[in-house]
TrEMBL record:
<dbReference type="InterPro" id="IPR011245">
    <property type="entry name" value="Butyrate_kin"/>
</dbReference>
<dbReference type="InterPro" id="IPR023865">
    <property type="entry name" value="Aliphatic_acid_kinase_CS"/>
</dbReference>
<keyword id="KW-0808">Transferase</keyword>
<keyword id="KW-0418">Kinase</keyword>
<dbReference type="InterPro" id="IPR043129">
    <property type="entry name" value="ATPase_NBD"/>
</dbReference>
<keyword id="KW-0547">Nucleotide-binding</keyword>
<keyword id="KW-0067">ATP-binding</keyword>
<dbReference type="InterPro" id="IPR000890">
    <property type="entry name" value="Aliphatic_acid_kin_short-chain"/>
</dbReference>
<comment type="similarity">
    <text>Belongs to the acetokinase family.</text>
</comment>
<dbReference type="GO" id="GO:0047761">
    <property type="term" value="F:butyrate kinase activity"/>
</dbReference>
<protein>
    <recommendedName>
        <fullName>Probable butyrate kinase</fullName>
        <ecNumber>2.7.2.7</ecNumber>
    </recommendedName>
</protein>
<dbReference type="Pfam" id="PF00871">
    <property type="entry name" value="Acetate_kinase"/>
</dbReference>
<keyword id="KW-0963">Cytoplasm</keyword>
């Protein structure tokens, strides 16, 4: 089973070709800000991104004619259950249009997958998109009538990390309970119960720990005071996703620089780093409570997990809950390919995207 995975990012496009579980080809092409500035809308980037992929394949002599499945990083879709979805016209419409209100290059993934699938005679899929929403009922509630919680998480990497760790326990993901974290430019902390991600923080909505470019949870009254002090809504919204966290506190989102400055005695950098780690541990404890204390493992993924002191800090604070296991980096490309293989082999049935959010409020 040969699978081609496509992952459009903010400043890059990643592709990888898998033959079974083996990655036989992987490449990342970087896009300069000047290149991307030529496009006023996300949709206008499609020919540019597609050509970049075609150029890579031509340069490396990679033939896709025998590829059975093409998987694009999902984005822009309305809340749905986790799983593998065959790319339909509705998925294309919603992803390019950003039906969920989020504009990110990942929204281009389904269209790119469909284009290359049609050109090579394969099937097109998306796997566990960022809008995967499997919250339990209690997790949806807020204290404001008619206002409910939704989640945007690194669902693809979170679920793949959990699936892989369950395999090391010689168990199925559906038989395990985990607290799974993605700790990188954004930070997702999630509770997985018997194969469903029943709670987690909304990294788009400003929940959870601060991150290199995200403010994390801030008391509502403080946000209101910030607005009344003359800061605009657009500026405040950017703090949630792009200019908060380390960027706001220290002036850089480069975690390596933050750690280096902290080691050299920079009090501000150390305070910011320690606060982020503290908040990660605090959220892990919250997710453990969601699982009733029945936690088969605390799993750490994402780029910042390469820092051993972060892992040790989590072990020191949270190791009493369950064993802490580090999976530095990410499994996004592998996760996309694995999802397609499960469908191709008949181990999993593909789901159909309805365009109807999985939750639209309680009926009573």
């Amino acid at each position: 089973m040969r699978v081609f995975a496509i992952n459009p990012g903010s400043t890059s496009t990643k592709v990888a070709l898998f033959d079974g579980e083996k990655c036989v080809f992987s490449k990342t092409v970087r896009h300069s800000s000047e290149e991307l500035a030529r496009f006023s809308t996300l949709a206008e980037q499609l020919p540019f991104r597609a050509q970049a992929i075609s150029d890579i394949l031509a340069e490396e002599g990679v033939d896709l004619s025998d590829v059975e499945a093409f998987v694009g990083r999902g984005g822009g879709l309305l809340p749905m259950e986790g799983g593998v979805y065959e790319v339909t016209d509705l998925i294309l419409e919603h992803s390019i249009g950003g039906a969920n209100g989020v504009t990110h290059p990942a929204n281009l993934g389904p269209t790119l997958a469909r284009r290359f699938a049609e050109a090579n005679g394969g099937r097109a899929f998306v796997v566990n998109p960022p809008d995967t929403d499997e919250l339990c009922g209690a997790a949806r509630m807020t204290g404001i009538h008619g206002v409910y919680r939704h989640v945007h998480l690194h669902a693809l990497n979170l679920k793949e990390t959990a699936i892989r760790h369950a395999a090391t326990l010689v168990r199925a993901y559906e038989d395990c309970d985990f607290v799974v974290c993605h700790i990188g430019g954004g930070i997702s902390i999630s509770a997985h119960q018997h194969g469903r991600m029943i709670d987690g923080n909304d990294i788009v909505g400003g929940e959870g720990p601060m991150a290199p470019t995200r403010a994390g949870a801030v008391p509502v009254v403080e946000v209101l005071d910030y607005l009344e002090a003359g800061h605009g809504v657009a500026e405040t919204r950017r703090l949630c996703m792009k200019t908060g966290g380390f960027e706001s506190l220290v002036g850089t989102s480069d975690a390596i620089q933050i750690i280096k400055r902290a080691d050299e005695g920079d009090v501000v950098a150390k305070r910011a780093w320690d606060a982020m780690v503290y908040q990660v541990c605090k959220e892990i404890g919250a997710m453990a409570a969601v699982l009733g204390g029945h936690v088969d493992g605390i799993l750490l993924g994402g780029g910042l997990v390469y820092e051993p002191r972060l892992v040790e800090s989590v072990r020191r604070r949270c190791g009493w809950i369950a064993p802490v296991t580090a999976y530095p980096g990410e499994f996004e490309m592998e996760a996309m390919a694995a999802g397609a293989r499960r469908v191709l082999s008949g181990a999993e049935e593909p789901k159909t995207y309805t365009g109807v959010p999985v939750f639209a409020g309680f009926s009573d």
